[in-house]
Specification:
- The strands form 4 sheets. Strands 6-7-8-3-9-10 form a 6-stranded mixed β-sheet, with helices on both faces.
- It has about 500 residues and is α/β, with parallel strands linked by helices.
- The chain is globular.
- The protein is about 35% helix and about 25% strand.
- The structure holds adenosine-5'-triphosphate and magnesium ion.
């Protein structure tokens, strides 16, 4: 019945260019009330650009938009919103110096008249109504929010407008399993209430759990649209990358060498009595739920946070890093979780960003000359298939996933003693993911010690020789690859586990 009506929203023949780059060419997308339409494609395929056109952020060069069959034009974002469309941005802009309540209602339709106290009350009610209490609090300052919480604030911004069409641009890339479950419940509820939903994600499993229809883009062109029940992972991968990919990567472990990193009862305000070892040639995974302290532990290791008690050794020598530059000098490379904020220089070129670590650190260590290293950085940019018109393109103009790839290229090219990777494949497409696994494997084979944080359990399981599971800032357990299953890791990651174990 629903499907015979005009779609809630349709875009037809959409074309959009940025100078020499054709981001979209004759693309069609229709979104129906009460349905979830997944939008898939490799990094740079044009997904975010299409959503930005729906949101009125970009004007198409050609094509037409209709709502309920009627033509519409969105000359500006607020016109799109007045028509009941909301886009959940891939990289939410959070105002750091105001609280969650104000961040939610910033620019909301008709919110200007409220005092900040009234806003806080309204925000708390809305947060509870949509099931996000316990995840965010109306009074928290924007600057204190984790990536997952920032994403939830961005979602709340849309919900308070009660939109008829909501587009999610990779909403789960910074969320842990708990938050993903909350988000999925929310999306199903919106769908049941008749909202038309577009959903961008690189995670196959999510697509099959959520979507009614899948639309695939490749290089700015529409490859096809399929009912989710009539397609499978293999077909979608083929549609996205234009060829088949091997099954999930599984690393063949090598005999590990001497310990490169040793932590003995390391504590500070973020982590509590952490002991762990990473040997040369070993890939060690760190699993845990959001808030377990995994990123904080990585930042402690690289000198972002000071060690208050306990000892840390690198190559057997006690170290006391005062800043990340100390750890870089000791041969530690670190690709942080919030790559855009913490690692990229958006106003500089792809080449400068990719070569940064190489030029600064490796040459200082005296291994190779700068020109050679630049060449190496270029090679990783190629291997990860960074989609960019040229090496001199500003990084800020690349798609979200391609920005991620540039930072990773930088650290993978650096080939340090110890490589610390926090969520290395977040936001990265299927083709580049398997390439990243292969590069990590090769680095380990060359004797690099690798410590990887990942929220994707299949990734931790496929990649790691050994896995530490964190909970509440502590190591809740260590699991050898032979014994590692998703269930085992999850049960260790749950906060109740330790109490049970102690009782
Ligand atoms: N403002 C801009 N200026 C120049 N080029 C741009 C701009 N915005 C997007 N592009 C280019 O348009 C293409 C499509 O980018 P888009 O962000 O839509 O990709 P995407 O499918 O969302 O990828 P990802 O999965 O990495 O987020 C890319 O080649 C990108 O570099
Ligand atoms: Mg995008």
């Amino acid at each position: 019945m629903m499907t015979t009506q005009a779609p809630a929203f349709a875009a037809t023949g959409i074309t959009k260019t940025f100078g020499p780059v054709t981001a979209l060419s004759e693309v069609d997308l229709s979104l129906r009330a009460g349905q979830v339409t997944a939008l898939m494609g490799e990094n740079g395929a044009g997904k975010s650009t299409l959503l930005k056109i729906l949101g009125g952020d970009y004007q198409p060069d050609g094509g037409a938009l209709t709502m309920g069959g009627e033509p519409v034009t969105f000359a500006e974002p607020h016109i799109s919103r007045q028509h009941g469309l909301r886009i959940i941005a891939q990289e939410p802009e959070i105002i750091p110096h105001v609280d969650v309540a104000e961040n939610i209602f910033v620019g909301a339709l008709g919110a200007g008249a409220f005092s900040s106290r009234a806003l806080r009350t309204r925000a708390s009610e809305a947060i509870a109504e949509w099931g996000f209490d316990g995840v965010i609090d109306a009074s928290t300052l924007g600057s204190a929010l984790s990536p997952a919480q920032r994403q939830v604030v961005e979602i709340m911004r849309a919900l308070v407008d009660r939109p008829a069409v909501i587009c999610f641009d990779e909403p789960t890339s910074s969320l842990g399993d708990d938050e993903v479950a909350i988000l999925f419940r929310l999306i199903r509820r919106l769908r049941d209430e008749g909202v038309a939903i577009a959903y961008v994600s690189h995670r196959m499993a999510e697509i099959f759990r959520l979507a009614d229809t899948v639309t695939v883009l490749r290089d700015g062109r529409l490859v096809g649209t399929r009912p989710a029940s009539e397609t499978d992972e293999e077909e979608l991968v083929r549609m996205m990358v234009g060829r088949s990919l091997d099954a999930f990567f599984t690393r063949e472990p090598v005999l590990p060498g001497d310990p490169v990193l040793e932590l003995d009862a390391v504590s500070n305000e973020h982590v509590d009595g952490v002991s762990l070892t990473v040997r040369a040639g070993e890939v060690v995974g760190v699993a845990g739920l959001v808030g377990a302290g995994r990123s904080e532990l990585m930042k402690t290791i690289v000198g972002d946070f000071a060690v208050r008690s306990g000892t840390m050794r690198v190559d057997g020598r006690v170290v006391d890093f005062r800043s990340p530059s100390d750890s870089i000098r000791a041969g530690i490379g670190f690709a942080p979780e919030e790559r855009k904020a913490e690692a990229l220089v958006l106003q500089r070129s792809v080449k400068d960003n990719a070569a940064l670590a190489v030029l600064r650190s490796i040459t200082r260590l005296g291994f190779v000359d700068a020109a050679k290293e630049r060449e190496l950085a270029q090679r990783y940019v190629d291997r990860l298939k960074v989609k960019t018109p040229s090496l001199s393109q500003l990084v800020g103009k690349l798609s979200g996933g391609n920005q991620q790839k540039v930072v990773l290229a930088r650290w993978l090219a650096m080939s340090p003693r110890l490589l610390v990777l926090d969520e290395p494949t977040r936001g990265i497409d299927v083709g580049a993911k398997s390439e990243i696994y292969t590069i990590i494997d090769e680095l380990a084979r060359d004797g690099v010690a690798v410590l990887v944080v990942s929220s994707e359990l299949p990734e931790v399981l496929g990649l790691s020789d050994r896995i530490y599971v964190m909970c509440d800032g502590r190591i809740a357990g260590e699991v050898a690859r032979e014994d590692a299953t998703e269930e085992r890791l999850l049960s260790l990651a749950m906060p109740h586990h330790r109490q049970e174990a102690n009782s």
